[in-house]
Amino acid sequence: MNVQQVGVIGAGTMGNGIAQVFAMKGFEVILVDVSDAALQKGLAAIGNSLGRLVKKGALAEGAVAGILARIRPATALASLAACQLVVEAATENPSIKESIFRELDKAVPADTVLASNTSSISLTRIAAWVSQPQRVVGMHFMNPVPVMQLVEIIRAVQTSDDTWALVYQLSEALGKTPVTVKDGPGFVSNRILMPMINEAAFALYENLATPEDIDTVMKLGMNHPIGPLALADLIGLDTCLSIMDILYHEFRDSKYRACPLLAQLVSAGHLGRKSGHGFYQYDAA
Ligand code: NAD
Asked: Structurally, what CATH architecture does the domain formed by 189-267 represent?
């Protein structure tokens, strides 16, 4: 299938980054969110991101207007009717995603490929919400999308070879490196990353060391570019907690129990960088 027009659902952190990388490679993008305010915020983030690339010398200033012109905002899923691919990057909430996929099923042609950027919801479950489940696949971009190289391609039980091949090749066309994994709780990325972050939270909970020292052990001892507690603050502690809960419930294995400190910080509204306070304190909320 020749993909020219791509729909992106959700103009938040991930959706605006996904729209940006497709538009930078010449695809026509329709960016959908629930309100004009959310769309304007997403478009402003794309403008800022492109501005940073120009400043770094990674993008010609003259290219910016063309990229922005390729991204059309919309508030209705019906606007996606001419898309060959839709990437869903809405809020990580199963009931929100279920209503989006059930509506998408009616809004786009039967052969439009439907990808989800979910971090933790089973793609096999998502595929069961549409009438041609073989066209559903996970396209798990990393944050920040314009910078990070990886796309984790998740094959649901129902995903066809054609669907998989299309998003694999498109990821390469975006200049990314795709890695294929089977559907399973946390896929590969969060199956490994989240228990490590959770263990770092336990180390702090048990007062083994300060947050700075725990992160320094992993940075200098294991050559990680960022410590697990600082990374958790970047991802959002609420997101980390919800992924741990999914691993725990789906495997029914106590080794995935969330650290009480993580749950406590989330209850206190200390969600990491986005709230100005997590394992660390930040200047601006
Ligand atoms: P976000 O909260 O920044 O943005 C979500 C956007 O979805 C919001 O703008 C919201 O208005 C919109 N939205 C909600 N319901 C909608 C609907 N019915 N139709 C259209 N838009 C709707 O969230 P995010 O961090 O961008 O996460 C989006 C997805 O990407 C989630 O599935 C998340 O798990 C996944 N993800 C996030 C990260 C990360 O680091 N933030 C990394 C990888 C994957």
From this structure: Orthogonal Bundle (1.10)
Q: Is the overall model pTM greater than 0.85, yes or no?
A: yes
CATH architecture of the domain with residue range 5-182: 3-Layer(aba) Sandwich (3.40)
119 Cα nearest atom in ligand 1: 34
For residue 218, give both structure tokens. 């992993």
119 is catalytic: yes
| pLDDT tens readout for residues 163-210 | 999 999 999 999 999 999 999 999 999 999 999 999 999 999 999 999
Nearest CA to ligand 1 atom 35: 118
> Ligand 1 mean position to 117 CA, how many Å?
8
Domain with CATH 1.10.1040.50 in the chain: 189-267
What's the CA-to-centroid distance between 99 and ligand 1, angstroms? 14
Transcribe 53-69 into DSSP letters. HHHHTSS-GGGHHHHHH
User: For the residues 251-276, what does the mean pLDDT come to?
Assistant: 97
R_g over Cα of the chain: 19
**Test site for ligand 1: of 21, 92, 153, 245, most ligand atoms within 8 A of the Cβ:** 92
* Closest of 121, 173, 175, 125 to residue 150, by C-alpha: 175
Q: Per the residue annotation, which of 140, 171, 198, 270 is the catalytic one?
A: 140
Question: From the alpha carbon of 100, which atom of ligand 1 is closest?
Answer: 18
> Alpha-carbon distance 106 to 97, whole Å?
15
Residue 28 is a catalytic residue: no
The amino acid occupying position 100 is I
Give tens-digit pLDDT for 22-55: 999 999 999 999 999 999 999 999 999 999 999 9
